[in-house]
């Protein structure tokens, strides 16, 4: 037996470095481009075939690739009483229902269709959906078992065990970092099946929490969590030295939530959180215990308290907002609160221009975030997990969780952590796993630490890194002189790239010992140096 090993990769970036008067660096968050590669789709399908509550047994998976901006609005397609105005999400609901009834099957020629026993009210609609998606090349079937000439008829008509709706905006860090000096993973994202199987508004690979790129807020901060930000300007503070406080772009860590968020809905209606001073904006009441406000907003955090639908109110119209779009609406309340989206409810006299704009084809929502006077208008940003160091003092992750939005699973309890995923606190905080953390010093240096980990089922003592706890990474960052630090997404998502290749070993194994598999990401932080 070998000894337990923990490997930690450290990336150091000098953000205060400069050439003449121009910054010698660029640190930015980049979303993946919606250009799915065939091997990427197969990687997604393999992931969901292998991982799940049925593991180590495999299952048949049908990937449904979302259009993302190319959808046609449907009329009166309903789910849980909500009119779905995004056809992709309505199509997913049709396919998921057929799979649950065990009538969605794959023929030996690879076609996915309805089995002979299908007796559904929406039989024709499901077939039309399948034909359209197949024609557009947006269906990928991954069988659970082998299919070749030796099996003959046994391979015919495999039922689909799981339908996975995929956001095509995903890519590999190693691929995107080819032209960069370095890179690392960013925000959390929807990946576990419990996050989307009961919710047509949630697609795998959708980002979770705040995402800012090139000053555009592409995903709002519906959770109150710390964020890693890169600002356009810097304003000196007591921890800055003269050089770093002299107008260079600076990285910051700030706690951001719905109170810092404002949104311009279709039709020009503007709503804003309590910390935002925006003339003419309607104030948001976030997750109110009693309705009646002109504008109410419900987030997945409300689910932790057992609230899964918005209150009934004949004088209110609810709008489901995912990313930069309204994807659903309902009059009268009673709208199911999505797993990873917000419901904005407006009294009818204020909702009328929004409804009119949506019916005219406009579903775009423009977000803004007020990150505080020292941040100005951030260029880039993503939310992470918990603060590890604040104002030079180490933080206790368990204590920090109590003041943040880390609950939201229907079957969870008070020790839920990363919404909408159910994970016990002790699993994330106390046990060793793959983790990634970012630390900032007062003189402009930035450290990114990745503690390599490995899946428990394929871990080999002495050969695989056992990972580390967030507290271990925090203590390492303290020793490096960091005065601010944040823990980011960990597990198989945690990765660091250096000069075009991965500098750290991923923790995903697909149940094969020693086979480290890089996970697809919806975006990543990239560092370019002149």
From TrEMBL:
One matching Pfam family: NAGPA
InterPro entries: NAGPA
Start and end residues of each Phosphodiester glycosidase domain: 337-520
High-level lineage: Bacteria, Bacillati, Actinomycetota, Actinomycetes, Pseudonocardiales
Protein name: Copper amine oxidase-like domain-containing protein
């Amino acid at each position: 037996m070998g000894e337990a090993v923990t490997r930690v990769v450290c990336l150091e970036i000098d953000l205060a470095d400069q050439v003449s008067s121009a910054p010698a660096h660029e640190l930015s968050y980049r979303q993946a481009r919606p250009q799915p590669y065939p091997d990427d789709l197969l990687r997604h399908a393999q992931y969901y075939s292998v991982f799940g509550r049925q593991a180590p047994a495999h299952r048949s998976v049908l990937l449904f690739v979302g259009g993302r901006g190319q959808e046609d609005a449907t009329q009166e397609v309903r789910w849980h009483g909500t009119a779905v105005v995004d056809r992709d999400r309505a199509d997913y609901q049709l396919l998921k229902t057929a799979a649950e009834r065990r009538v969605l099957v794959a023929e030996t020629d690879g076609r996915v269709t309805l089995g002979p026993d299908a007796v559904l009210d929406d039989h024709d609609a499901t077939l039309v959906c399948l034909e359209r998606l197949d024609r557009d090349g947006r269906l990928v079937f991954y069988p659970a078992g082998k299919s070749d000439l030796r099996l003959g008829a046994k391979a015919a008509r495999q039922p689909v065990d799981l339908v996975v709706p995929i956001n095509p905006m995903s890519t590999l860090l190693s691929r995107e970092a080819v032209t960069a000096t370095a890179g690392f993973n960013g925000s959390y994202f929807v990946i576990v099946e419990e996050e989307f199987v009961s919710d047509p508004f949630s697609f795998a690979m959708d980002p979770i929490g705040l995402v800012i790129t090139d000053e555009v807020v592409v995903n709002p901060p519906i959770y109150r969590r710390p964020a890693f930000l890169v600002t356009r300007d810097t304003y000196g503070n007591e921890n800055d030295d003269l050089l770093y406080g002299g107008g260079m772009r600076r990285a910051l860590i700030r706690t951001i939530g719905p109170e810092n968020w404002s949104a311009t809905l279709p039709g020009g209606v503007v709503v804003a959180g309590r910390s935002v001073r925006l003339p003419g904006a309607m104030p948001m009441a976030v997750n109110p215990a009693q309705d009646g406000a002109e504008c109410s907003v419900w987030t997945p955090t409300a689910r932790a308290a057992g609230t899964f639908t918005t209150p009934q109110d004949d004088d209110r119209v609810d709008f489901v907002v995912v990313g930069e779009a309204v994807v659903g609406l309902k009059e009268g309340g009673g709208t199911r609160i999505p797993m990873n989206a917000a419901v904005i409810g407006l009294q009818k006299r204020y909702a009328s221009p929004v409804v009119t704009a949506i019916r005219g084809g406009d579903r775009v929502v423009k977000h803004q975030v007020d990150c505080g006077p020292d941040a100005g208008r951030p260029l880039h940003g993503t939310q992470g997990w918990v603060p590890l160091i604040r104002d030079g003092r180490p933080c206790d992750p368990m204590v920090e969780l109590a003041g943040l939005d880390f609950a939201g699973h229907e079957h969870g309890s008070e020790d839920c952590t990363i919404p909408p995923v159910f994970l016990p606190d002790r699993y994330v905080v106390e046990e060793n796993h793959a983790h990634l953390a970012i630390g900032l010093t007062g003189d402009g240096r930035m450290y990114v630490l990745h503690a390599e980990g490995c899946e428990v089922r394929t871990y080999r003592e002495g050969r695989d890194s056992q990972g580390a706890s967030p507290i271990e990474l925090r203590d390492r960052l303290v020793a490096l002189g960091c005065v601010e630090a944040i823990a980011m997404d960990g597990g198989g998502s945690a990765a660091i790239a250096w000069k075009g290749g991965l500098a750290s070993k991923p923790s995903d194994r697909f149940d094969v010992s020693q086979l480290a598999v890089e996970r697809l990401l919806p975006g990543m932080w990239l560092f370019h140096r002149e």
